[in-house]
Write a structure and sequence with these properties.
235 residues, alpha/beta, TIM Barrel, two-stranded antiparallel ribbon, 7 helices, 10 strands, globular, binds zinc ion
Length: 235
C-alpha cells in the first residue's frame, strides 16, 4: 500500500523547535493533514516518544519512534525503529556518548519533556544539539543492532549533512534510504529518497501526498520499507 508520510519532525524537546511542538499537537496536526505515518526525531534524545506514540494510538496516526543523531563528523543521521523500547535504548546509548554541556535556554531554546497530558513535566539540562562521540559507522551499527535503520538526513543541505561533509556516499555503510532536502529524487543515487519536512513549527508539517510504499501503516512496516530502499519499491 501507499501511505502518506512525514518522517522527520521535531518535538519541543529539540531546543530549536517551537514550544508548541508538543507530541499531541504534532499528531493532531498530522491527522488534520491526512498523514498516515509520521516520525518524531529529536536531536540526540527520545524523551517525548512514549507520549507521542500514545497520541498516535489515540488519533489513529502511526508514529514511528526515531531520533536524529549528530555524529562525530557533525552529520545528522535519522534512526528509525520498529518499537518504542528500541528507540529509547538508542536514546540512552546516544546520551552516554554526548558531551555534557548545560543548555542555555535563552540562547538555544527550551528542551521540554511532556507528560501523557501534553503538560511540561521537565526539561533536559544538557544541550542536545552537540555532536556525539560516535562516527557515522558506529551510529549505523548501533541502529542496526537494535533492529532499526539509519537514514542520513537532508544529505544535500549545507550544514550537518552527509554530502557536503564527506563529499561522497560512504561505500562501507549500507544506506538503502537517504533523506533529501527540497529536491527531486535523483535516479542516479539508486536509493530510496525520502522528502520530509524537518518541521520545527506545526505549520511546517507536510501535507499528505509524500508517499511511501509499505505493507501497512505501522512502525515495523515503515522500517522494513526503509531497510529495503529502492530494492523494495521495484519488487
Ligand atoms: Zn538535521
Ligand atoms: Zn531535524
Amino acid at each position: 500500500m501507499r501511505i502518506s508520510v512525514d518522517l522527520h519532525i521535531h518535538s519541543c524537546l529539540s531546543p530549536c523547535a517551537d514550544d508548541s511542538m508538543t507530541p499531541w499537537n504534532i499528531v493532531g496536526m498530522a491527522k488534520l493533514k491526512g498523514l498516515d505515518a509520521i516520525a518524531i526525531c529529536d536531536h540526540n534524545a527520545t524523551h517525548n516518544l512514549p507520549v507521542a506514540m500514545k497520541a498516535g494510538q489515540e488519533y489513529g496516526v502511526c508514529v514511528v519512534p526515531g531520533i536524529e543523531v549528530t555524529s562525530k563528523e557533525d552529520i545528522h543521521l535519522l534512526c528509525y525503529f520498529p518499537t518504542l523500547e528500541q528507540a529509547m535504548e538508542m536514546g540512552r546509548r546516544v546520551n552516554e556518548k554526548q558531551l555534557k554541556v548545560k543548555n542555555k535556554p535563552s540562547v538555544f531554546g527550551n528542551q521540554i519533556i511532556v507528560d501523557d497530558d501534553d503538560e511540561e513535566c521537565g526539561t533536559v539540562e544538557n544541550l542536545l544539539i552537540l555532536a556525539c562521540d560516535m562516527d557515522i559507522e558506529e551510529v549505523a551499527f548501533e541502529a542496526k543492532s537494535l533492529g532499526g535503520v539509519m537514514v542520513p538526513a537532508h544529505i544535500n543541505k549545507g550544514a550537518n549533512s552527509l554530502l557536503p561533509i564527506l563529499g561522497m556516499m560512504p561505500e562501507n555503510i549500507e544506506l538503502p534510504t537517504v533523506e533529501i532536502y527540497k529536491m527531486r529524487p535523483h535516479s542516479a543515487l539508486s536509493k530510496l529518497c525520502l522528502t520530509s519536512s524537518d518541521a520545527h513549527f506545526l505549520e511546517d508539517i507536510l501535507e499528505e501526498g509524500h508517499v511511501l510504499e509499505c505493507e501497512s501503516a505501522s512502525a515495523d512496516a515503515v522500517v522494513k520499507a526503509l531497510l529495503e530502499g529502492e530494492r523494495g519499491k521495484s519488487e
